[in-house]
Amino acid sequence: MTYSTSPGASGLPQQQQDDQRRHQKVCSKNCGTYAPSNTTSPPATDGCCIPQWLGHPRRLKSYAVFEPFPEMEYRKVQKLASAIHGKVYLYEHIPTGKAVVVKKMPNVNVIQFDPRMLEDAMTEIGVSRYLATSTSGEFIARAFGIYQDEEFTYFMSEYSSGGELFDHVVNAKQFSEPVAKKYTWQVLRAVKSLHCNGIVHRDISLENTLLHDDGSVRVIDFGQAVLLNNPEGPTPNTPLLHSGRAGKAYYRAPEMYHGHYLGAPADLFAAGVMLFIMTVGTPPWNQASVADARFRYVAKFGVVKLLTSWQKAQLMSPELLDLLGGLMCVDPEKRMTVDEALDHPWFDDCDCEEQPLIVHSPRSLTPP
After folding, report:
1. Predicted confidence band at 279 (pLDDT cuts at 50, 70, 90)?
2. Can you give the residue ranges of the Protein kinase domain (predicted)?
3. Please, which residues bridge with residue 76 across strands?
4. pTM here?
5. What angle do CA 234, 266, 321 make, to 5 degrees?
6. Which of the residues are catalytic?
7. Would the CA dihedral through 8, 9, 11, 12 be positive or negative?
8. Residue ranges, CATH 3.30.200.20, the chain
């Protein structure tokens, strides 16, 4: 079974033809520098008023393309976990001996979306494939293959032996500022990489952040991802409004409880809650809604006041307190952006190597 976009008369996928026409229409109103491409690679956009647009996925699920599972090349080692749509296994790639993760899901769970579940397996597969073939994917778990037989779908990705960052926080009780700083910076870089490529995660959390073999993190689980901008809008940077709750209750932004909201600020709020839990050792609330007394306190007085009442603020640097206040700001319009967070003074002494984000740099989707 294959899900792909059929080519049109020009030989290009219909989706890309539609994008090119829309790109040309918008560009002609602005800078007029658009030059159509007859290849499936993203066209050059130097100097164009809307760079990076064509590479952004208009329909996240349309990137889900399946191949036959190369069963003879892999050996199942053990079960790692149960997931909403199936089970997660550790496999060995026999030719190289390298470990990979395979999420095995019944096809019915992949093809038929159950609205009662927050996560959509087809969206996760489509987003992961798009990111694996289109971006640098900095601190994002890389997909190696998406396979399907008559009964099951196999979603293969890189293996991070350290497990969930959540478990490390639980074992350590809380992280020191230098440790939390390293992981927070990497998560923010992952968020920026996603946003630069038109994706909002909506489920950023310690549970969805794995510790990789080299000590860095990998953000996983794109089943609740959505588009950052509206592909039907008058400009490529027209924000797309979303509705409905997503993510885990601790990390869920307060605006998710009140109608429509923008995706990017919600990801930053979740990153702030991650930082709070890492440095304090406990969540700030059960949920960021008026039904929660601690959230009502933070909404009125701010997160620093809450930490002061817990006698935690005096144990933290002023820079950390300021960053927490900016990321966990209740008002999404006043909340820090990802660039503001990465440029925050708290990271000035961070031992982190910043690599330039690469957008639209195609790479193969192959096992190690």
Report:
1. very high
2. 74-347
3. 91
4. 0.80
5. 130
6. 203
7. negative
8. 60-158
